[in-house]
Design goal:
- The chain contains seven helices and seven strands; from the N terminus they run ααβαβαβαβαβαββ.
- The chain is α/β, with parallel strands linked by helices and 199 residues long.
- The protein has one domain: 3-Layer(aba) Sandwich (Rossmann fold), CATH 3.40.50.150.
- Strand 1, helix 3 and strand 2 form a beta-alpha-beta unit.
- Helix 5 runs parallel beside helix 6.
- The radius of gyration is 16 Å and the shape is globular.
Length: 199
């Protein structure tokens, strides 16, 4: 498995595919190992790297539904997943994430762990759409919430990133309101760990 993951890291570097970076990876794995999730929803498959990390470090009966827009990336991800021990545990849904989240709502499924690593400007929308699908005490992990240091602090935001930064600030505010509590791990590009308090 480690050999497969190293191969994927090489592919991602060569083809400029964003995967969870080395600094963020340890924090990511720590959250997954603490939560030991059974039913995972991932928004943003890319090449399947984080799916395989979650499968390796989650519960023994883990089942992952992962959403990806790009047909090319789905093909690459499926190739890697098929070579792993978790081929029957990871299911890729192709197409627009917002539409697929609405389809998943209709199935009545519940997820105890959600990992968001897709279009940064859509995080608020994704958060609203996953609400009906969260199990009690679900953990929601969102990557890149500090977006190159522009979201927190005094660094001036280039015009082309202003909308993304504004929406990520909205996301952080949203997940910091009761009944949610959020911790931002500043490893990598910022990982928001959101838990629902017992009500």
């Amino acid at each position: 498995m480690d050999e497969l993951l190293r191969e994927m890291e090489g592919y991602a570097a060569l083809h400029h595919v964003p995967i969870i970076n080395e600094r963020g990876r340890q924090a990511f794995l720590q959250v997954v190992q603490e939560a030991r999730p059974h039913r995972v929803l991932e928004i943003g498959t890319a090449i399947g790297y984080s799916s395989l990390l979650m499968a390796q470090h989650g519960a023994a009966d883990i089942d992952i539904t992962t959403l990806e827009l790009s047909d090319e990336r789905i093909k690459v991800a499926q190739g890697y997943i098929d070579r792993s021990a978790y081929a029957d545990r990871i299911h890729i849904m192709g197409g627009d994430a917002a539409e697929n989240l609405l389809k998943l709502q209709m199935t009545g499924q519940k997820f105890d762990f959600v990992f968001i690593d897709a279009a940064k400007g859509q995080y608020v929308d994704y958060f609203h759409k996953i609400q009906p699908m969260l199990a009690d005490k679900a953990v929601i992990l969102a990557d890149n919430v500090l977006f190159r240091g522009y979201v927190k602090g005094d660094v001036p935001t280039p015009r082309r990133f202003k909308t993304i930064v504004k929406r990520l600030r909205e996301y952080i505010e949203l997940v910091s309101q009761p009944p949610y509590v959020t911790e931002i791990l500043e490893n990598g590009d910022g990982l928001a760990v959101t838990r629902r308090l017992d009500t």
